[in-house]
TrEMBL record:
Residues 12-191 form the Ketoreductase domain. Coiled coil: none annotated. This is Short-chain dehydrogenase/reductase SDR. It comes from Granulicella sibirica. Belongs to the short-chain dehydrogenases/reductases (SDR) family.
Length: 255
């Protein structure tokens, strides 16, 4: 009988953008539970402090690095500070992103660009800053948080679907670029999860019931499930998985 699989990320440093709430917070806590040191990146210092304090209180190691990941100068400063604190990180999770829902003709150029920048440009800047430190080590993990909206879409999502589909293409190309280095690059495409982003639906019993009835599994995703998947992709067990995107959506896109 083989031993039970245990994911141990001790000795690894994980950089997580958009770490102040939701899925970024959940993944950060999961990495810390698995033994990794976590560099928490976002703009909201107060919320980052709360996540850091929760990780430390649970016995983990984390530090916050505040900045705007759509800014080239901010990302450079964050990369320098993270490396000074922890050394070159082995894991990067590009989780930052925003969404504006409106019809195409209602979008301003600035609004459309802001959605694209928050997902695609931030991922380019952060990956470019940290990937060089992974090269030559034989191990590295990049996870880009795509979305089911990279595979399907809904009205009012022209900017968001464009950003996430572009991010999926970036993920595949970078995976091929780094495959010979022992560095994997994958996407995670979440469906509906029980985060504050979906609070308006979750807090309306009638609307919530209607929505859940449309989901094959009949429930919201648990943020811990995203954390577990991210930890697996960053483990030695997942070294043969690269250039792909994993849908974690309760069967939504299978309908």
């Amino acid at each position: 009988m083989g031993s039970t699989m245990k994911i141990d990320l001790t000795g690894k440093t994980a950089v997580v953008t958009g770490a102040s709430r939701g899925l970024g917070e959940a993944m950060s806590k999961s990495f810390a539970e698995a033994g990794a040191q976590v560099a928490l990146v976002a703009r909201n210092v107060a919320k980052l402090e709360g996540v850091r304090d929760a990780i430390v209180a649970a016995g983990g190691v984390a530090e916050l690095f505040a900045g705007d990941v759509t800014s080239e100068s901010d990302v450079a400063a964050i990369a320098e500070a993270v490396t000074k604190k922890f050394g070159a990180p082995q894991i990067v999770v590009n989780n930052a992103g925003s969404n504006i829902r409106k019809s195409l003709v209602e979008f301003t150029l600035e609004e459309f660009k802001s959605v694209m920048d928050s997902s695609l440009i931030s991922t380019f800047l952060v990956s470019r800053a940290f990937v060089p430190g992974m090269k030559g080590t034989g191990y590295g993990r990049v996870i880009n948080m795509t979305s089911i909206m990279a595979h399907i879409s809904l009205p009012g999502r022209t900017a968001y679907s464009s950003a996430k589909a572009s991010l999926l293409g970036f993920t595949r190309s970078l995976a091929l670029e780094l495959a010979g280095e022992g560095i994997t690059v994958n996407g995670i495409s979440p469906g509906p999860f029980g985060t504050e982003m979906n609070a308006a639906v979750m807090n309306n019993p009638e609307v919530n019931a209607q929505f859940l009835a449309s989901l094959p599994v009949g429930r919201w995703g648990k943020v811990e499930e995203i954390g577990a998947l991210a930890c697996y992709l960053c483990s030695d067990y997942a070294g043969f998985i690269t250039g792909t995107d994993i849908l974690i959506d309760g069967g939504w896109t299978a309908k």
